[in-house]
Design goal:
Layout: H1 6-25, H2 28-35, H3 42-45, H4 49-62, H5 75-93, H6 100-106, H7 108-111, H8 113-139, H9 149-170, H10 174-186
């Protein structure tokens, strides 16, 4: 079996460290200890935490499953399946740690330009993916046309991230699905 590279070990373990501690509280030492590699090896692969974090955010964004958004069927059902899948993704990684994007967005003001840009790009891609499905739902009369598809996509994503943040604080994610259901009902035409 091929050995995992030091770079991959750092990326794999840093995501967990950032989820638990946030960008600012996580040190290079925390990351290298979690990865089981010497501290000096970090700088052989990354210029700093911002560089590593941008890589982690890009991988997280690429791993987001948007396939249900382009499935057949009513747009609201596709949005529900997609967003429920994201709730399950957070649950699998630990409700108390929340969504990686939300955690890093919360650190954005002090984490640096590169981290803010990578999180913004990931959120923009996610918004764009949902915008298309919402536009389809508006075209068929299923979803209200009172707001633009992009504004509704931002609303849903913000609701999901905010509800996930609240779940992180209270340690219970059960209300996230309820809030999502309320929001989707409110979008019906």
């Amino acid at each position: 079996m091929p050995r995992v590279s030091v770079r991959e070990q750092l990326i794999e373990h840093a995501e967990d460290v950032f989820r638990r501690k946030g960008f600012n509280a996580a040190s290079v030492r925390d990351i290298t200890e979690a990865a089981g590699v010497p501290k000096g090896s970090f700088y052989n692969h990354f210029t700093g935490k911002q560089d590593l974090t941008a890589e982690i955010v890009a991988r997280y964004a690429r791993a987001t499953d948007f396939s249900t958004l382009s499935d057949e069927g009513p747009a609201l059902e596709r949005l529900h399946r997609h967003l429920t899948g994201q709730i399950d993704r957070v649950r699998a990684s630990g409700v108390e740690f929340g969504c990686l994007l939300g955690t890093l967005a919360g650190d954005g003001a002090t984490a640096g330009r590169r981290v803010r840009e990578s999180v913004r790009e990931a959120l923009d891609s996610w918004t764009e993916a949902m915008t298309g499905t919402i536009a389809e739902g508006q075209a068929t009369g299923e979803i209200t046309a009172d707001r633009s598809p992009a504004a509704l996509a931002v609303f849903l994503l913000d609701l999901l991230e905010g509800a996930t943040l609240r779940a992180k604080v209270v340690g219970d994610q059960s209300s996230v699905a309820d809030e999502l259901a309320i929001a989707l009902d409110a979008l019906r035409a």
